[in-house]
Structure formats: structure tokens, C-alpha cells
Design a protein that fits this description.
Strand content: 15-25%
Structural class: alpha+beta
Number of domains: 3
Distance between the termini: 42 Å
Helix content: 25-40%
CATH class of the largest domain: Alpha Beta
Strand order of the largest sheet: 4-3-2-1-5
CATH superfamily of the largest domain: Transposase IS200-like
CATH topology of the largest domain: Alpha-Beta Plaits
Number of strands: 9
Order of helices and strands: HEEEEEHEHEEHEHHHHHHH
Length: 385
């Protein structure tokens, strides 16, 4: 199922003239009947600015349209079953006045089988009535305080920063949307394949905030490295932070993340966290909230903060249940330790190659997928070794 160029142009012209959007995203096709020539073809599009925050527009074959309100495109389980329809995902931007908007609407599509395309509010939707492929996503726990510990990880645990320019760009984006979205930022830490934020939502939801940050960075990253597609795992991880005690635990956990991962000897020497901002070099973080928990006297508060951040602990936060994974850079270091011909493992004698692969597979935190990506050797071969 596809759109001819002339059909695309008609749709764009129709929508721009009627609704004057700055951004048109073709979410997918809905078809009734068998085969395109016998189908009543509808298109599902997302517009900016929308009529309401999560509006989905169904554009009919005859270019009439209807608005389905209260449909959150990130979760399409809110569909009842009255008549058969098939969704075909396209994920195509049809029209965009401003490139920054490209970054703000990365829409996750759940695969479906037969189902109904008349959308209903979430509270009325039967659980998993469509038979969604894969496990249904649990609702994100809401924080009474509005404060969340957030983590975004690279897809397949790949690195999300290639150099310091990438890290500076992400911090610049975080600062930009801090003004746009009116959130408070208490902590950040940029690791190799993921980053942490301790953040408070105000006028905009945490989901929208993270969409803005992640989408903008991905757009810039893909443009810089001439790539396309996803950079982050589709759904960011978050936990509610609803007590002062746990707030300080998360703050320390984030700042100590590089030390526990072996990237730094102590929290003060790691360049890409907010630890130093609490000592006086404030650039991006709102430090008053945390420091006031230690003392109303600022000098005393900083001393107590510094002592607390450097205490040995067994803090267990958002991702503590996950097995620690080595970054690509760390795996490459292990390869270089095992062979002087690290760049050409595929050219080694089979016995020597297999010995190195076995050694790498024995390391904690290394996956077959990661080894395949780094070495160029197929997953099936690595799996058999």
C-alpha cells in the first residue's frame, strides 16, 4: 500500500489550505476491503498545531476528514472492535515548515492485526482487545511531586555520543527546552550509551518534555552523521520521586553513576554531570531545592552536599535491576587487549578468532548483538562459538 506523488500533493494542499498546519506527519494507512483497488482508503495523519494535544486526523479517500480527539498516538490500544481495518505504518513526514518540528513528533506505532478504527477514550477501551503483538505497555507512574528520575538509553545499548560536541549539543537542547517547557532540572549525567535526568514537570507533561529533548537531539545527530532511524529505545524509563529522602538518593545515584561504571575515579572529575554546578558553577541546574535540604546556610549546604555525594552507598534506583552493560568503547578496549589485529577479527584464523570471541562472550555486560555490531561477524556465528 502506497501513495502516489500526486495523491500526496493533493493531501498536503488540502490540509494546508483548510487547517494551516506547520507540520504534517503521515502516521499510516487504514484500508477496508481486499487490495488497494477495492479498498476504501483512509490516511491517519498528525498535525502541528493540532486541535487538541493528541488529535488524530483521518483523511478519507475523497479528501473529507474527521478529527478523533483524545487519542494518544503513543498508545494505540484505545481502539474498539466494530469493523475490520488494517493499519500499515509508514512514518513519513509529508510537510514541514520548520525543521525543529521534525524532532518533536517521533510516534511509536504498535503493530496490530484485525481491529476497529473507531477510537474511544482510554477509560472505555477494553484491555488489549486488538491482540496487540508483544506485551502491552504499563502506564507510567505519575509523581505527586511532579519530580521524575528519567533515563534514556541508546537503541540496542549503542553509544549515543560520538564526541564532546554531541554532549554539548544535548546539554544545549536541554537548556533550550527548559525555557520552552518550563521544567526544573535538578541533575543530569551523560554516560556513553544513556543519560540520566532528575527533573520536575510544571506546565508540560514529562512525556512531552522528553519527546522534545530526545527528538531534537536525534534530528541533529542523524543530520550530523548522515544516518536515519531511531537512536533511543522507543520508551524512556522513569520513576516518580515523591520524598525528600529519595530525591537525595537519586541525586547521589546520578552523580555517582560514572564512578560505579568505571568511567571516573570520583564524582568531581567527571566532566559531563551536574555535580560541579552545586559547588558554585551553576549553568543549567536548579540547585536551590536540593541545597536547602542540607542547610539554609549556603556554604554549610555545599559542604554537606559534597560529603553526601561522596559517601559510599548501595543506592538502587531506576535501572538497578538491569545487568550492567559495557559500552562499545569498553568492548573495543577488551578486543585490543586480546589481539593486535582488533580492526580485522574477520581475517584471523578461525581458531584464533573463536578464542577471542569466547573470551569476549565471557565478559559481564557484553551481548551477542553488540559483538556482532562491533566485529562485523554475524550473530548466528557468534552464537555458535
Amino acid at each position: 500500500m502506497y501513495l502516489l506523488e500526486e495523491e500526496k500533493n493533493k493531501i498536503i494542499e488540502f490540509l494546508v489550505d483548510k487547517l494551516k498546519p506547520k507540520f504534517i506527519y503521515l502516521f499510516g494507512f487504514f484500508a477496508r476491503g481486499e487490495g488497494r483497488e477495492n479498498s476504501d482508503l483512509d490516511l491517519a495523519v498528525y498535525l502541528d498545531p493540532p486541535v487538541s494535544e493528541y488529535d488524530l486526523y483521518l483523511i478519507n479517500s475523497d479528501l473529507s476528514f474527521e478529527v478523533k480527539r483524545d487519542v494518544h498516538l503513543v498508545d494505540l490500544r484505545n481502539v474498539s472492535t466494530v469493523f475490520a481495518a488494517q493499519i500499515v505504518s509508514t512514518r513519513e513526514v509529508l510537510y514541514c515548515e520548520d525543521e525543529i518540528l521534525m524532532a518533536n513528533y517521533e510516534i511509536r506505532v504498535l503493530k496490530m492485526g484485525q481491529g476497529d478504527r473507531s477510537f474511544v477514550p482510554e477509560k472505555e477501551a477494553p484491555n488489549n482487545r486488538l491482540g496487540v503483538i508483544g506485551m502491552p505497555r504499563t502506564a507510567r507512574k505519575r509523581a505527586k511531586s511532579g519530580i521524575y528520575h528519567v533515563m534514556l538509553r541508546g537503541i540496542n545499548r549503542q553509544n549515543i555520543f560520538e564526541d564532546d560536541e554531541d554532549r554539548r549539543k544535548l546539554l544545549k537542547i536541554i537548556g533550550h527546552f527548559k525555557l520552552v517547557s518550563n521544567y526544573e532540572l535538578f541533575s543530569y549525567c551523560l554516560m556513553n550509551n544513556h543519560f540520566h535526568l532528575l527533573i520536575k514537570e510544571n506546565s508540560e507533561s514529562i512525556s512531552m518534555i522528553i519527546k522534545r529533548i530526545a527528538g531534537s537531539y536525534v534530528h541533529w545527530y542523524n543530520s550530523k552523521y548522515e544516518r536515519c532511524g531511531h537512536l533511543f529505545q522507543e520508551r524512556f524509563k522513569s520513576e516518580a520521586v515523591d520524598s525528600s529522602k529519595y530525591f537525595l538518593t537519586v541525586l547521589r545515584y546520578i552523580h555517582q553513576n560514572p564512578v560505579k561504571a568505571g568511567l571516573s575515579e570520583d564524582v568531581g572529575k567527571f566532566k559531563w554531570s551536574s555535580y560541579g554546578e552545586y559547588l558554585g558553577n551553576v549553568r543549567l541546574v536548579d540547585v536551590d531545592y536540593a541545597l536547602n535540604m542540607f542547610s539554609e546556610d549556603r556554604r554549610q549546604a555545599i559542604r554537606l552536599y559534597e560529603r553526601f555525594m561522596n559517601e559510599e552507598n548501595e543506592d538502587k534506583c531506576l535501572d538497578y535491576e538491569e545487568k550492567i552493560r559495557l559500552s562499545d568503547e569498553e568492548v573495543i578496549k577488551h578486543i585490543r587487549r586480546l589481539t593486535s589485529n582488533a580492526a580485522n577479527l574477520q581475517q584471523l584464523e578461525k581458531s584464533e578468532r573463536d578464542k577471542i570471541i569466547k573470551e569476549l562472550k565471557s565478559l559481564d555486560g557484553v551481548t551477542v548483538r553488540q559483538l556482532a555490531r562491533i566485529t562485523g561477524i554475524s550473530k548466528s556465528v557468534i552464537g555458535r562459538i
